[in-house]
User: Which sequence fits this backbone?
């Protein structure tokens, strides 16, 4: 348990956490505003990853992939929301759940149909490769980028939700959707926009994950599971909760592997069970 | 049903019913009798994985089997019957039974996963039905559960790891860091390497077993960096997408350049997977019995024929199917093409000893193929990634004595 191993685990935990923030923020957003627990979220991440890979293969530009993939998936999100989810508002939430589960299967099979069962991986541009030496700890350049980037996205989202007019509408919507529409605000447009943003965030996370790990047709389930654990630990519907949940989960995984090898996965699930028992609204809870 | 005539002899209705039924039955079963009579047909069943992510493996193995028969004198007589086992033992058993009983296959190319193949082998043993396995080498099938009716034609977890010990000690060094996915095969591959390695004076300086599907290896990489003394190489079994992720992150953390090479047993850097690694695979090794770039006359013939028939490189999975097909063909040759002569075919396959695209292949008494085991390194040639053979460790089956990895095989008791 020496200091350098501890610091390394801390750093890696924060790194894992920063990737998780990107993955879970979209899910938290759509649930918080629309009450829709989007089980297709993992599928959207995966589609974003595959799309990012193809875009990079065609154009050779990583930045183009990172910008275009989320935009394309946001459009997919608009279509998904307008045609399939919207008719189910106000009905038993079970319908929405089943719908999104079905959508996730559609996405998973679409991926298999278009790209086949092969594995892929996004090759990073030169300047992202290699690592920096932070006080004796080797930190890959791209991870540093992910850390900074997700911080930026978090700040932007926080600012957007806390300070802008749209944000006020969204926060009000989390509390009382009927009153919001009573103010004459087109609630359907808000929902579609929020869903699109959630989908775009999912795709962005997918591209970044695709650059750090292998892209494969089973990654949607893994990503969805991580996002759900984060959101349960942090609190459904709260963006701050998603950030805290991600950091907690990341640190648990990093320290778990180092100090309780073999039990690493268990520490994560165990934490989720504890939160559900003692603080079911999540560490941060509904704001 | 007429009101009278319940016991009074044969009514007209009864006669018509019975005759119609008999004629209908004869018409339906006619083809079956016909098929049995036409024993010119050689019926080969394949219970592989055709769905989900492992669909490629099933297709690849099947293509190899088809090629072997297409190049044989039986190409016009052979008929293939394929079933998807979904990598589930109960489904595998059901499909195997179906193929033998309803489609009357003569022999089976068995399932790809070890737990499936053991289940099917146990079932077919008592029924005296023949199965050849391309993959699915469960270590118990090499020993305690060996069966006269099962042949392991590919490779086993033992012969993809233990043979590398001498090469590692000679070419890399005394210190190894073992890695593996946290399930039976991962632990087996590590154990079959680590035990002889330590007996010969080597030292295991650290280890990790990652859950299948791990996508974040940073904490494990930290362990590798912290190992003291520094390992001369990593050895073990991480495969598929986990290996791609691991190799990628290994490179990200600077270990590809400054750290020990990764050596994977069981062919982790297989040709079919190489494109997905990009640059991350360069310089690493794997232990395997075949690579599409092996330089021998039989491999040239195989690759040319395969690429002509299927328009793509014949990778390791295709080759395994081809070996199964080849052994089936050679078995048939020995019995004059009489596919019903299961016992005769078995006797012939037991004595097989020939040159294959892998090299010199023969069958051991425990029905496990004795194959050449090579160490390959991923190198770049003309801008493309290939596997270069850097060591030939000899020919290995799998030990089948009482202290063999799978226990003692009764077939070999003599």
Assistant:
């Amino acid at each position: 348990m020496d200091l350098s191993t501890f610091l390394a685990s801390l750093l890696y935990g924060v790194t894992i956490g920063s990737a998780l923030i990107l993955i879970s923020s979209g899910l938290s957003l759509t649930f918080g505003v629309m009450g829709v627990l989007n089980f297709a979220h993992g599928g959207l991440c995966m589609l974003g990853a595959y799309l990012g890979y193809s875009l990079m293969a065609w154009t050779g530009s990583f930045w183009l992939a990172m910008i275009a993939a989320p935009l394309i998936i946001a459009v997919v999100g608009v279509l998904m929301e307008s045609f399939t989810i919207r008719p189910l508002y106000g009905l038993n939430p079970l319908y929405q759940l089943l719908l999104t589960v079905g959508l996730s299967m559609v996405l998973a099979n679409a991926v298999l149909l278009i790209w086949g069962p092969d594995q892929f991986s996004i090759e990073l541009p030169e300047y992202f490769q290699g690592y920096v030496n932070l006080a004796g700890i080797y930190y890959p350049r791209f991870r540093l980028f992910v850390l900074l980037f997700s911080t930026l996205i978090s700040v932007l989202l926080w600012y957007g939700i806390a300070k802008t007019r749209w944000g006020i509408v969204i926060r009000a919507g989390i509390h009382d959707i009927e009153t919001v529409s009573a103010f004459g605000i087109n609630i359907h447009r808000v929902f579609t926009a929020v869903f699109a943003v959630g989908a775009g965030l999912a795709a962005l996370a997918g591209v970044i994950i695709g650059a750090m790990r292998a892209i494969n047709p089973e990654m949607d389930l893994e990503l969805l599971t991580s996002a759900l654990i984060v959101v349960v630990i942090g609190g459904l519907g709260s963006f701050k909760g998603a950030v805290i949940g991600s950091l907690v989960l990341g640190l648990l995984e990093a320290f778990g592997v180092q100090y309780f090898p073999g039990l690493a996965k268990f520490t994560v699930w165990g934490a989720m069970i504890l939160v559900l028992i003692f603080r079911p609204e999540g560490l941060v809870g509904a704001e | 049903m007429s009101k009278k005539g319940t016991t009074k002899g044969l009514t007209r209705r009864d006669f018509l019913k019975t005759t119609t039924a008999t004629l209908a039955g004869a018409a339906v079963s006619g083809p079956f009798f016909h098929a049995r009579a036409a024993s010119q047909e050689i019926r080969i069943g394949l219970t592989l994985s055709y769905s989900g992510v492992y669909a490629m493996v099933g297709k690849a193995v099947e293509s190899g089997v088809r090629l072997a028969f297409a190049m044989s004198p039986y190409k016009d007589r052979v008929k293939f019957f394929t079933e998807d086992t979904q990598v589930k033992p109960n489904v595998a058993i059901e499909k195997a039974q179906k193929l033998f009983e309803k489609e009357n296959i003569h022999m089976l190319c068995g399932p790809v996963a070890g737990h499936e193949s053991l289940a099917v082998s146990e079932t077919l043993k008592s029924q005296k039905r023949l199965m050849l396995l391309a993959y699915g080498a469960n270590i118990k099938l090499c020993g305690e559960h060996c069966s006269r009716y099962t042949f392991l034609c590919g490779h086993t977890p033992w012969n993809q790891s233990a043979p590398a010990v001498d090469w590692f000690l000679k070419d890399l060094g005394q210190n190894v860091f073992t890695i593996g996915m946290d399930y039976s095969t991962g632990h087996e591959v590590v154990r079959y390497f680590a035990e002889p390695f330590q007996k010969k004076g080597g030292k295991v300086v650290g280890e990790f077993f990652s859950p299948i599907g791990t996508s974040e290896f940073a904490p494990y990489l930290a362990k590798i960096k912290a190992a003291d003394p520094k390992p001369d190489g990593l050895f073990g079994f991480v495969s598929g997408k986990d290996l791609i992720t691991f190799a990628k992150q290994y490179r990200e953390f600077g270990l590809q350049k400054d750290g020990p090479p990764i050596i994977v047993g069981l062919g982790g850097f297989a040709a079919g997977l190489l494109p997905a690694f990009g640059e991350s695979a360069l310089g690493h090794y794997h232990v395997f019995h075949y690579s599409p770039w092996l330089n021998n006359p039989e491999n040239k013939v195989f690759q040319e024929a395969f690429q002509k028939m299927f328009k793509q490189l014949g990778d390791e999975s295709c080759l395994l199917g081809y070996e199964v097909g080849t052994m089936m063909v050679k078995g048939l040759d020995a019995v004059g093409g009489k596919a019903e002569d299961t016992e005769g075919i078995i006797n012939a396959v037991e004595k097989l000893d020939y040159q294959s695209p892998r090299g010199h292949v023969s069958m051991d008494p425990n029905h496990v193929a004795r194959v050449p085991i090579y160490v390959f390194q991923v190198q770049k040639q003309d801008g493309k990634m290939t596997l270069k053979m850097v060591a030939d460790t000899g020919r290995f089956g799998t030990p089948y004595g009482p202290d063999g990895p799978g226990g003692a095989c009764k077939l070999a008791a003599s």
Remarks:
- The interface with chain B takes residues 5, 8-9, 12, 15-16, 19, 117-121, 123, 129-131, 138, 140, 142-143, 209, 212-214, 216-219, 222, 253-254, 256-258, 261-262, 264-265 of chain A (CB under 8 Å).
- The CA atoms of residues 3 and 9 of chain A lie 10 Å apart.
- The mean pLDDT of chain A is 84.
- Strands of chain A lie at 131-134, 137-140.
